[in-house]
Amino acid sequence: MVLNHSDLHHVVIVGGGFGGLYAAQKLAKAPVRVTLIDKRNFHVFQPLLYQVATGGLSPADISSPLRALLSKNKNTEVLMAEVTNIDPQRQTVKLRYREIEYDSLILATGVTHKYFTNDWEQNAPGLKTIENALEIRRRVFIAFESAEKESNPEKRKDWLTFVLVGGGPAGVELAGALAELAHGTLKEDFRHIDTSQAQIILLQSPDRILPAYPPHLSGEAQTSLEKLGVTVKTGVRVTDITSQSVTYRQGTTLEKIRTRTILWTAGMKASPMANLLAQCAEAKLDSQGRVMVEPDFNLSKYPNIFVIGDLAHYTDAQGKTLPGTAPVAMQEGEYVARFIRNGLQKRPLAPFKYVDWGNLAVIGKHKAVVDMGWLQLSGFLAWFVWLFIHVFYLLEFDNKLIVMIQWVWSYMTKTKGARLITTPGQNPEIKLEDEYETVIYQPSSEVPHCLEVGNR
């Protein structure tokens, strides 16, 4: 049964991340009816996921219920559901339990991790969701607890070796946080191990970390990481990952690192929604699986379907492809909302122009890099700018307040208060057998099937 409760123009938004949420908020007072659909009932401030992964913040500190965020938007309903099919001809999206008609459809389902082989995902979790962050936190602290109980020096060293694959902002921030955790926060907590002896190794395929930044800022970031005790290896390519080792190639030489904790902060690929659009709406995809969109973010054959955020491949007037960052998704969401609203009111809208506020990456306490084009900073001032901007963009006041209090407390006491080992549905186990491996979170890689138009 197809439900249609109003003659108002119906905007369906799939995805409650930055792009989808900002589009919904911008449509709050428009003469439309809005339905926002997401598989989870909350929005996550993804730039701070690494702090959840290292015990600095709790999941609720960086998350906000979607219903609470949109409760004052009287024209908006929120559905916790998963879109399984899209029929562009009939203008419907299919959920598991019903179909919903749309007049305009905004897709903002983001990206997921891209591995060279499927086997690696089990042994090297990525960092895109709350579940990812909790799984990384579990593995990190299980490693220290296992090392504390291990009497074999070689096996203890394996537990105290942490390897991160990928030297972009996520890898740099996570590596710095792990170094501060091991070499500072935990130093007095254990009796049989010296956590400051932990090795944090960052592997990067390009010849420098943070390749999107100017070379001198990348160099300063690497220097800051090395001062924290992180070993940075650039110009290397990972060739194999198992539950107990990482193998990489540097030039013609193969090297193997024995480790029990491997974290993936490298490549990304578009969510399965991109493949669904390619099947159902003849959308063109780029090499990363992102959807190629028109200047107004719609599809060439279906102008009432819009794709924004990390899911979209958008090329600006200068021929530059916009990066998959939160500010890009926010501005795209707001633009598409204005485009729909102005179209209904027969008012013209200026072409989209992205305002680049720059790139930021934090390396540790008092250490960050900021690239705003006209302003490039590193060190303490950059760290202060990073703190201010991240608190500013947190959506709810209580989140802003809690995060500020947590950061001040952590700064003064050098502690992290969310160092919990949690395993959903069961008690955590600590085993020392070599074959032991537990995977709590395995994102589904299943791609929804396209509806066959004409068979309905």
From TrEMBL:
<protein>
    <submittedName>
        <fullName>FAD-dependent pyridine nucleotide-disulphide oxidoreductase</fullName>
    </submittedName>
</protein>
<feature type="domain" description="FAD/NAD(P)-binding">
    <location>
        <begin position="10"/>
        <end position="333"/>
    </location>
</feature>
<keyword id="KW-1133">Transmembrane helix</keyword>
<keyword id="KW-0560">Oxidoreductase</keyword>
<keyword id="KW-0472">Membrane</keyword>
<feature type="transmembrane region" description="Helical">
    <location>
        <begin position="374"/>
        <end position="395"/>
    </location>
</feature>
<feature type="domain" description="External alternative NADH-ubiquinone oxidoreductase-like C-terminal">
    <location>
        <begin position="358"/>
        <end position="412"/>
    </location>
</feature>
<dbReference type="Pfam" id="PF07992">
    <property type="entry name" value="Pyr_redox_2"/>
</dbReference>
<dbReference type="GO" id="GO:0003955">
    <property type="term" value="F:NAD(P)H dehydrogenase (quinone) activity"/>
</dbReference>
<comment type="similarity">
    <text>Belongs to the NADH dehydrogenase family.</text>
</comment>
<keyword id="KW-0285">Flavoprotein</keyword>
<dbReference type="InterPro" id="IPR023753">
    <property type="entry name" value="FAD/NAD-binding_dom"/>
</dbReference>
<dbReference type="InterPro" id="IPR054585">
    <property type="entry name" value="NDH2-like_C"/>
</dbReference>
<dbReference type="Pfam" id="PF22366">
    <property type="entry name" value="NDH2_C"/>
</dbReference>
<dbReference type="InterPro" id="IPR036188">
    <property type="entry name" value="FAD/NAD-bd_sf"/>
</dbReference>
<keyword id="KW-0812">Transmembrane</keyword>
<dbReference type="GO" id="GO:0019646">
    <property type="term" value="P:aerobic electron transport chain"/>
</dbReference>
<keyword id="KW-0274">FAD</keyword>
<dbReference type="InterPro" id="IPR051169">
    <property type="entry name" value="NADH-Q_oxidoreductase"/>
</dbReference>
